[in-house]
Amino acid sequence: MERLPERIRKLLGDAPFETDAIxxxxxxxxxxxxxxLKIARDDAVARQEAGIMAWLRxxxxxxxVLACEREGGRQYLLMTRLSGKMLCDSAVxxxxxxxxxxxxxxxxxxxxxxxxDCPYRADLDAELAIAREHVERGEVDVENxxxxxxxxxxxxxxxxxxxxxxxxxxxxxxxxxxxxxxLPNILTENGRITxxxxxxxxxxxxxxxxxxxxxxSLHDNTDGPxxxxxxxxxxxxxxxxxxxxxxxxxxxxxALLDELF
Length: 261
Ligand SMILES: Nc1ncnc2c1ncn2[C@@H]1O[C@H](COP(=O)(O)OP(=O)(O)O)[C@@H](O)[C@H]1O
Ligand SMILES: [Mg+2]
Prior knowledge:
Layout: H1 6-12, E1 18-20, E2 28-31, E3 35-41, H2 44-56, E4 65-71, E5 74-80, E6 85-86, H3 90-93, H4 96-111, H5 124-136, H6 158-167, E7 175-177, E8 186-189, E9 192-196, E10 203-205, H7 207-223, H8 237-242, H9 248-258
Antiparallel strand pairs: 1-2, 2-3, 3-5, 4-5, 6-8, 7-10, 8-9
This protein binds adenosine-5'-diphosphate and magnesium ion.
């Protein structure tokens, strides 16, 4: 079993834990009765997560940071465990209309955070720079993209997509954004949103960042690659709850940008 940094080991003692296999980032998650230990590659996004969580305390329901250690190229983030079920939990997902309402509520909560003293940037200058790093290091997981993105009529390869994104930047708005607003990163209890997790990519950026990922996650979980809880469900109903008619080109742009993350 992996040896933990001493400070974390002292805090946890020999408490029992379960592991979690939901995340996509390759992070190792240990669920303790009252705490969660997230073990991730010590990269720029991981390094921001504890600071963002601390900045968000009192602004959004997020875990409290208990300790954060870096050792051997890994980051060990120990935080409080939030109660509630993920929006992708089968017990929640059974009612697609309700999940959609909750997801819209989550987007409004995140977009309402006051950004005046927010030091975390997630605008296109910042995001395209990270995307370029991923492309140049060969880290884009092409297997994990929409089949149409890198197909005839789409983009040749990640470099081609990156150049298109750099040359076709939409006009940006500034709002607080989560950065990975998918159903497993949002918790609910008693019909309300009770928690946000996986915050390493959060910061001031365009709200379509979150709209694009939220819509795709709703689609993928209701009638797509992650399950068919509600065959034929129209994920665009999300925008009815948000009270907006989305800008289709911006939706496409931000969905494509996420393919490089
Ligand atoms: N503080 C927490 N409280 C409750 N559950 C958590 C917490 N942190 C993580 N989890 C659970 O572990 C899963 C993966 O954690 P997450 O931070 O999203 O990692 P990844 O980057 O791998 O997606 C979450 O979807 C959630 O089910
Ligand atoms: Mg996650």
